[in-house]
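Throughout our pipeline, every protein is held as a single compact record rather than as scattered files. Such a record has a labelled line for the sequence and another for the backbone structure tokens. The remainder of this section carries one protein's record, kept here as part of the documentation:
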Amino acid sequence: MKIAFIGGGNMASALIGGLIKQGTPAGYLFAVDPNAETRERLEKTFRIVTAEEPSRKLADYDAIVLAVKPQMLKEAAESLRPFIVERQVVISVAAGIRSSDIMRWLGSHQRIVRAMPNTPALVGLGVTGLLASPTVNHDGRMLAAQVLEAVGEVVWCTNEGEIDSITALSGSGPAYVFYFIEALQTAAQNLGFPAEEARRLAIGTFTGAAQLAAHSDEPLSVLRERVTSKGGTTAAAIASFMESGIAESIVRGTVAARNRAFEMGEEFGQG
């Protein structure tokens, strides 16, 4: 498969690196970015061909990945109109922007896949939600999945609302995790540990617990309760968390993120 990227930032770099690691020849990949330093970095790091702006060369590729920020997507998509061909699958990684808006900006191109990866994709451990427009056939879906599986797992959605929810959960979720690890590091420092050691303890504890959960079929509540002896230290901490309503706050925050994803579609999908 031959893949072109519009935008050469972190997510494009992660996808390019993942594809090459999986065996895609560098000559099958191409990137367009107006920034000379970005192009130079991509050329040196991955040995791929780059260009400053779109051209007829794009017609040679099976898929085009729109790897730009939501507020830049309209301009990027419209710049592709003279060069895109019907057989191509266009994959957008911009949060919130509806498939119908992308189709309109592309000049009624129908084969659209929305993708919502997250930042662990940068280390090959991403989780990506995918949503295909009805005109994307089986081969197109497989192609989109293959691109995003280069950086982790994929989950298919059935409607725009579902991918907005995945945006709130796994797209924004790493920030929630970092927020908790930050708090755990602060707690360790307050208990007298130096900052670097506190960071190592906090990250190591979270990584170990996440791996244990990933390797277990038991409910998370069972894993938690197994650590929580009645009247013990863990029970004291969990009781404090529950009294503060931390679980409820996480649920409310996730809903707020989902609502914001919808608002971004309305805000940046105009025009």
About this structure: The mean pLDDT is 94. The chain has eleven helices and eight strands. The CA atoms of residues 78 and 105 lie 5 Å apart.
